[in-house]
Amino acid sequence: MKYAQAITAAAWALLPATLAAPAEGTHKRAISSIVSGTPMGFASGTTGGGDAATVYPTTVDELKSYLTSAEPQNIVISGTFNFQGTEGTKVVDACDAYPCTTSNGGQALLNTLGGCGSIATYSVSIDAAAYNPIYVASDKTLVGKDNAVLYGKGLRFSDVSNIIIQNVAITNLNPAYVWGGDAIAITDSSNIWIDHVTTSYLGRQHYAFGTGASSGVTISNSFLNGETSNSASCDGHTYWGLELVGSDDTITFYQNYVYMTSGRTPALSGNTLFHAVNNVWSSNSGHMLEGTDTGKGLYEGNYIVDAPTVVQSGFVGSLFTSDASVASQCAAYLGRNCVPNTLVNSGAFSYSDSSFLSLFSGKSIPAAASAASIESSVPAAAGNRL
Predict the structure, then answer these.
(1) Are 276 and 366 in contact (CB under 8 A)?
(2) Pick from 210, 211, 311, 331: most CB atoms within 10 A?
(3) Which domains does the chain have, with CATH numbers?
(4) Is 29 one of the annotated active-site residues of the chain?
(5) Spatial CA neighbour of 2 closest among 264, 365, 320
(6) What is the pLDDT of residues 219-257, one digit of tens each?
(7) Rounded distance, CA 373 to CA 258, Å?
(8) pLDDT (tens digit, 9 = 90+) per residue, 291-336?
């Protein structure tokens, strides 16, 4: 599946014109009272809509208008916002690139970037709303109440900053077709906090980071639900989890639950600094971690179960996995020792490359509990459950 990584840069190059970044200093307003808790890790200080008046959209058009507006917004939604069919359909060429086809639990590959190569193509009709994400503008807070769901629509952050997304589900983005839709895509952006979000039934990535540098991003308390009826790995597990190819990204991945995947959780590439703290990875049928470039990952206090291959053969990035014998090396840079991971029925995951730990100096570092203590608590709380 390496061909998909090779065309990631081309995919981002084809995106529509990006939105303007906010004026300097606009992110310093106090965080809105509609938000539960405060951002941690690299996104600390993110305030979203700040003290803007709260709005309550009731239609998909109102929601799109608020999310893309030039001014700060605090947005509260409840129930299901069903985008399916609202923008018509799009006819594109596709091919059967995997052993299983859409009729027997697989995915077809959209040939939008020429990925089919010499494989025979045929025309398919996909939902245009799922294929076209909402380009969220700067200084926005979106909070869900009463099981808020974005059905058939993803979100994209491009050349923006200071955004909070909390307690929503994103689902049903052309799941039968690779390139049919990403849940959340980020490039050239900063100060993004994504918290208590559930993602499922997607055409491609749960989280896709483009090649532009994105700093100060935290994904926390979220549920990446990889169980799917359309699987590129032909086994009900999604292959498309976290694509991290940014040129200078800083990402905190904190107390998330990653379930039923078969690869790319994450694809740690580009020049990404990835801090994975107190997450639970469960049931990975392929490999959990891969990467082709100089990605750097610090893993501590994570609980990893049923992942026979944790790191794909040939991974070329840098990893520090906080083994008990070297955990004290973190103290000089994090202000505390790292916390060892726990692996159950899983492959080897022991790396001690400390050459990049100095990059954490002066940054906001979340506390870390023992891996054993989060086995049940993280899955129980992750996703849109507030």
Answers:
(1) no
(2) 210
(3) 2-87+128-381 (2.160.20.10)
(4) no
(5) 264
(6) 999 999 999 999 999 999 999 999 999 999 999 999 999
(7) 17
(8) 999 999 999 999 999 999 999 999 999 999 999 999 999 999 999 9
